[in-house]
Design a protein that fits this description.
This is Rhodanese domain-containing protein. The chain contains six helices and seven strands. With 116 residues, the protein is α/β, with parallel strands linked by helices. It has a five-stranded parallel β-sheet.
Amino acid sequence: MPKDIFITELSDLIKSGQAEIIDVREPDEYKLIRIKGAKLIPGSELAARQEEIDWQKPVVFYCRSGVRSRLAANFFARQGREAFNLSGGIKACYKDKSFDNLEIPAAVEAVNEYLG
């Protein structure tokens, strides 16, 4: 079973450079908002593209709210990998004003509509 990781823990990992962050959303979602330095590998492509993941570091999966990323983390945890699910997904990151590791290239209105 994968472990959940929370925003404060993720921030610490990002600052230390000690995590591989994988966005399992679709490309159109990734264009709206993403965590800085995250690698986009949509959930449907994870099994085929797993060699692109740096397993020498803890791997944190995220999606919009944490559902798809939990499935991804669970898939790899069952294989004995160190896989984490970002609790609450990018939606939680967006709502936490202390989290300063977001890239928001799209119009703020579109992001607000997407994350509600």
